[in-house]
Amino acid sequence: MKIVKYIIFFFLLNSSVYSQTIINAERLIDGVDSTIYAISLSYNGTKGNSNTNQLDISSLFILLRKKNEFKLFGGYNLLSESGKTILKGGYIHLRHNYRV
User: Fold this and answer.
1) Are strands 34-46 and 52-64 parallel, antiparallel or unpaired?
2) Which residues, given as ranges, of the chain have pLDDT below 50?
3) Which residues is 57 bridged to in the sheet?
């Protein structure tokens, strides 16, 4: 019975080590009127036995006003090998926050 308690304690201890904390990033913005934008481009290509191309594009647009916040995030990625598309995907996320 003692060994079972030690095994249960060991698994509980190990499972709690890999935990995460969620931060409310909305509260970190100070509310000053501003506009923020950013774009990120990344390309990685290799030539050899097989030619691979990887393209990643990310964009961000944030409009902060006294009581409104508009946020637009987007991204696109492409992975191809010898002219054949292996992976192609993207996303767009629009968020609006209103402060009372």
Assistant:
1) antiparallel
2) none
3) 41, 76
